[in-house]
Amino acid sequence: MITLSLIGIGTGNLDHVTLAAVRALNSADVILLPRKGDAKSDLLDLRRLLCERLLEAPVTTNIVEFDLPSRDDGRDSRNDYLGAVDDWHAAIASVWAQLIDQYLPNGGRVGMLVWGDPSLYDSSLRITQRLSDAGRAVEVKVVPGITSLQVLTAEHKIPLNALAEPVQITTGRRLRERGWPSDAATVAVMLDSGGAFTTLPPEDTYIWWGAYLGMEKQCLIKGWLNEVSDQIIQRRAELREQHGWIMDIYLLARKPLL
Question: Mind listing the GO molecular function terms for this protein (predicted)?
């Protein structure tokens, strides 16, 4: 039997890692750390730092780094985004299975460090399900983590929702395709490749934007879109050029939340 723990580690800030996550890390026989290419080496470095700081001596946990398969982004332009993601998940599941067979042939406990929380726009649970569907005896445990959405609202010092009003969490792709979600007073947007908010009426939309949340290079901008839209797009491009990658998120509303 393999026990696979998906451990939410927040947004890279050591202070955001829960005690439950620390216990799960220290109970693992093997921790798998994905390499996502040189451009995102910061993310691997942060995971290494978390292991270095949080694993208790004497460290007996085997830390294994592996190259994460790449998604075929070319299929996105051919309107086959879901197919590309499905094949990508299958490739990742295959790599996980090979590593588990190699390092835990007789069973044991595997830890996966998941950015943010495993439940919010992360596919670790879906990939893990593929292992079970392939006939592997896998017990899944989920350790919740602080999400980028929580850090965004905390850093901007705002509530997530307007008083007694609903919130919708969506993606940049959906916002571009469908516009403002019906019946949503506030909209949280994740996985935006850049500037989906420019499709909205700039005079009637307020934005709270954040990049690299929880990290030392965190950047925050807020205001009406007609005042800050160009500033966000320019700053985002500068940060991506400087660091080689970017992770950002934003909250939209028809009026300030306070």
Answer: precorrin-6A synthase (deacetylating) activity
Parent domain of 132: 2-143
Q: Cα 16–168–122 angle (5° rounding)?
A: 50
Q: Which amino acid, residue 177?
A: E
- Burial of 139 by CB count in 10 Å (0-12 exposed, 13-18 middle, 19+ buried)? exposed
Query: 160 and 137 share a domain?
Result: no
CATH of the domain at 78: 3.40.1010.10
Residue count of the chain: 258
pLDDT tens, position by position, 177-226: 999 998 899 999 999 999 999 999 999 999 999 999 999 999 999 999 99
How does pLDDT run across 53-69, given as a tens digit for each residue? 999 988 889 999 999 99
The pLDDT value given to residue 78: 57
Is the model's pTM score more than 0.85? Answer: yes
Q: Count of CB atoms within 10 A of residue 47's CB?
A: 21
Domains of the chain: total: 2
Over residues 153-158, mean pLDDT: 97
- Residue 73 scores a pLDDT above 80: no
Amino acid identity, position 111: G
Domain boundary at 93, 108, 143, which? 143
Beta carbons of 229 and 191 less than 8 angstroms apart: no
| Last-in-domain residue among 118, 143, 168 | 143
183 lies in the same domain as 224: yes
Q: Could you give the 3-state DSSP secondary structure of residue 104?
A: coil
